[in-house]
Amino acid sequence: MSFVHQKCRNVDVPYLGSQIYRTSVPDDLVKWNRDWADYAPPNYTDKKVHGQAWADPEINDHNQYTFDPKTLSPINPIGRTGLAGRGLLGRWGPNHAADPIVSRISDEGHLEFVAIQRRDNREWAIPGGMVDAGEHVTQTLQREFTEEAMNGNIDKDSLKELWSDGKELYRGYVDDPRNTDNAWMETVVFNFHDSNGLLNNVDLQAGDDATALRWIRVDSKEPLYASHAHFIDLLKSAHSK
Ligand code: RP5
């Protein structure tokens, strides 16, 4: 399970968009049940989060997760990250996302998927995003792909067949660099495999939070954002069966 808790303990760079460094958490002290009496990570919630409709209020009121009896904040289920507060995440506890992996077999016979370059840290990623309030996750998968990989150019019918045949690959915690001790990303990953060349008639173009787009081969070992390399390993296994 090492993929789940590396990027959110990175102490080489400050937390995204800030000058705040995490407390360094050694591997053997990640689990909350390991004693660390002096553990006092910086508490940081980005100013951008305050007062937003998509974010929780300052004072949280949770009882559905394990929570810290002192601060009443939900506790990261994997362990310490070296940072308290919400960082850039709106919700205390899980922040829900959806990741559409759109794949095909290239003319050369390689399995490849659509990747975008993220505006925030320039890393390559699956074009996923946050589930909006009241939105069903199947809508999020299509909306995010349309916004980030088709620059919002919706032609509802051209990809209807593709969207109708998604396969779930993963559901759960993400090792997102924005995670903190009290707020973390969870996602649902679906594969939409284009067996019929539907994407040949679609104009793939980076949009919204994406600055570039390209097809990446699953065996390229390209470093990817958060846990996305793990999701691509799952894609590879699913297609080798
Ligand atoms: C990752 O962050 C998820 O796997 C998803 O790809 C992404 C959602 O966040 P935004 O792209 O909306 O910033 O943890």
TrEMBL record:
<protein>
    <submittedName>
        <fullName>Protein CBR-NDX-6</fullName>
    </submittedName>
</protein>
<dbReference type="Pfam" id="PF00293">
    <property type="entry name" value="NUDIX"/>
</dbReference>
<dbReference type="GO" id="GO:0047631">
    <property type="term" value="F:ADP-ribose diphosphatase activity"/>
</dbReference>
<dbReference type="InterPro" id="IPR039989">
    <property type="entry name" value="NUDT9"/>
</dbReference>
<dbReference type="Pfam" id="PF25969">
    <property type="entry name" value="NUDT9_N"/>
</dbReference>
<dbReference type="InterPro" id="IPR015797">
    <property type="entry name" value="NUDIX_hydrolase-like_dom_sf"/>
</dbReference>
<dbReference type="InterPro" id="IPR000086">
    <property type="entry name" value="NUDIX_hydrolase_dom"/>
</dbReference>
<feature type="domain" description="Nudix hydrolase">
    <location>
        <begin position="94"/>
        <end position="238"/>
    </location>
</feature>
